[in-house]
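Example 958.
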Amino acid sequence: MATTAAPQPKTNRIGLTVLDYRGGKTTLCAGCGHNAISERIIDAFYEMGIAPERVVKMSGIGCSSKSPAYFMGRSHSFNSVHGRMPSVTTGAVLANAKIIALGVSGDGDTASIGIGQFMHLMRRNLPMIYIIEDNGVYGLTKGQFSATADLGSKLKTGVINDLPPIDTCALAIMLGATFVGRSFSGDKRQLHTMLKAALAHRGTVMLDVISPCTTFNDHEGSTKSYKFVKDHEEPLHDLNFVPHFNEIDVDYDPGTCLNVTMHDGSSLHLRKLEEDYDPTNKTEAVKRVMQAHDAEEVLTGVLYLNTTAPNFIDMINMTDQPLATLPESVTRPSRAVLDECMEALR
Amino acid sequence: MATTEFAVHGAEPGAVREPVVNDFSIQVATVNGSGSQSANTVLLRTIFQMGIPVSGKNMFPSNIAGLPTWYTIRASKKGYIARKKEIDFLVAMNPETAREDTMSLASGAAVLYDEPLKLNELRSDVTFYAVPYDKICAAVCSESKLRKLVKNMIYVGVMAQLLRLDMAEVEKALRKQFAKKVKAADLNWNAAKAGYDYAASSLTKADPFTVERMDKTAGMIIIDGNAAAALGCMFAGVTVVTWYPITPSSSLVETLIDYMKEYRVGDDGKATFAIVQAEDELAAIGMVLGAGWAGARSMTATAGPGISLMAEFAGLGYYVEIPGVIWDIQRVGPSTGLPTRTAQGDIEFVAKLSHGDTRHPMLLPCSVAECFSMASDAFDLTEQLQTPVFVMSDLDLGMNNWMSEPFQYPDKPQNRGKVLTAEELQRAGGFARYKDVDGDGIGYRTLPGTDHPQAAWFARGSGHNETSGYSERPDDYANNMDRLAHKFETARTLVPKPEMVRNDGNEVGIIAYGTSHHAVVETLDQLQGEYGVKADYLRLRAYPFTSETHDFVAAHKRIYMIDQNRDAQMLQLLKLDIAIEEIGKLRSVRHYNGLPIDARSITDDIITQEGK
Ligand SMILES: Cc1ncc(C[n+]2csc(CCOP(=O)(O)OP(=O)(O)O)c2C)c(N)n1
Ligand code: SF4
Ligand SMILES: [Mg+2]
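Predicted structure in complex with thiamine diphosphate:
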């Protein structure tokens, strides 16, 4: 009798393989930063053992916003209209606060047409993960400047951007998002860890991920190119995230580490590179982002974290069962109530 | 002047005046923000309590305080509740408009005015009553800053005496109005009594208008259309409400908030709903669609400018096939275009709102009772058809008080449409989101969060195949468009059917919708009583048009469509829907000056077109 069993594919804690987190074949350009981000999303959701059925993938319009079709095919997805994914997501989360909302947007989708909805989303601290796949251009409409393009950066056509960029992280911090980070599509480890921590947070997670557009904006003179980011990146922390279901004990030097307990009991270890940086200090966070601009650096890491502020769902004080599936006996008051209302109008 | 038109029928000067009982209109001309609303409501309620059919219409400026406002009250023993074009009794409280208001009256009318205005010098063919408000005020109210408010209640007392209203009913109405504010109620009651006493002692009745008790309002309620819609939505089971304030829709959601806090919070203190004030209408409809997609009964309320902003999302809702209810409380024009005046101005725009080929069902309530009942209809239809549904109210209906029979408790269980659960999916072995399984053009959907590996589908615009996969194939696109068209044909069979008054042999048919109904009812009597013209009547209750409407057009030689807009919008929609040979029958009656439509204008227009 043969004694060797066929090798079992690796599964996560809910028994799914990484293949269960895959989506359709990407139609984005080879080397597009957005594809790398999709891979990190797959890994993070797989490793955290999130059931894909509990997830909704939300997006606006752009190359970036197309990417939800290329990961997690077992999740519901909504490719909405340009710049207005935040409102659609808000409605969906109100209808069913048990779903995990992951939004994917672009810098054009967020910082231009969608800046209004973006700001109000941050302000509401709606529980969701909002990723900007930030390439400094409009990819899908073939290479116009976006509002995150740096001053002086150059288009392939030679056009120079002479308007200052909007810093979406600084905005998000100021407006009320409670987990704000910046990373780079090519930084596997940092992005992976950040996404896993994001999944443990219950509030708005805003991640600005520099994601070079190989077709329109990855050349000398572009501040969102692979080369530029590699040369100018200044990571703020060494990140390590320990999910609460994972028994691994990580031994860090207490003098150099800040442990943050996330909503689900897991912890995010931020290894401090500078003595004075505290990600829970809003003012300091904005200051550091601004200083990095002056130094022509891209500051990456978890810039701001607040695990105590109430999120939008807490504030509304809704019943625990999703509104979407409340039965008629709960949503239609009785005949007696109508009689009472009619009597008051006589 | 802006709001009353020259009346057409005047009494002969000097003619012997027959008493006119329970059939007249009062216009109170005041200044916005002067607190006259309470006084007017007391007057309205008193007539109502005395059993006489009554209606009240507020014509107010887009302004918080200081501009002219007119409130008209119509008492009608025959039950006509549309605006009456002619004013019989003017209460001139606004010095700025008093002269013009007086000059525009027909002879035989009556005017109550503040003594120093000396309006009696203007004409000799109307009856004048002078009231020294300041003197009476000073006597009943020691606090000078309250006098301005109390002044209004004095005209209530004077009118009560002149019209022979029952003061006990006045007091009842007044105490209801001030509810728990006993001190305010007492102060106002004293003012009303002072007005009454003054009239009794110093004025001699010289006009023919009086009120006598009837029993036509027993058991009825008074409510505005927006509050009725709010109640309707609560009983329809709405769970997600989003909005951005805009006149005349704001009070719908504000009233809804009050009702929901009262009746839709569980014993654990937790809400069975979420109401969000959005950052704009782009976001309001985005939230509605997100919530509808995720399975909630979601809605927003807005007016024309908001509808304009919602256009792109409305199209997405049509193509992704998501439920959502949008209340459009119509008003006139964009920007500062008379936002406080009524119109049926969004009909054509909403029917096809968005780019590409789109069609949206619209419900057309004519009364507060329908604002209530059509809320349930709208939520059932939107989930059944999986498409946004618009409820087209208007400012006249939404913001004015109307009497009504009490509302009927919804008699049908909620229809949540074709939603597959995980168990059903398991049994079916999967599903194709946009496949027309049942032949009605409506596919099956699953909600996000459904715990089944095959539950997910991809919500995206028009570029998809039956399984919601991305597709740019010409056949996929065309097939989907044809199915959507077929679904709209299904909608035709599901929307509320029109109401009709028909007799054999009548050549003339009138079609109207919404608030025009109340004027048309009166027009039918005027046509027959004054001109011997017998007409049939069909009241549309929804778009798309149903077969009854086609039959009605076919059965008449001339069809008059009544539109409260300049461009005959409903007529244009009907043209697209009927056989070419029938189009020549269509004639248009349009009303578009910002005021609620009145019967006399319709009658005159039809009679002219009939060549009589
Ligand atoms: C209302 C509207 N206006 C314009 C467009 C055209 N459009 C499509 S994608 C896009 C820009 C996308 O840029 P970005 O969000 O940065 O995404 P990227 O393609 O760079 O990932 C624009 C302007 C649109 N789809 N809708
Ligand atoms: S155009 Fe740029 S952003 Fe779009 S897919 Fe290609 S590389 Fe990516
Ligand atoms: Mg971009």
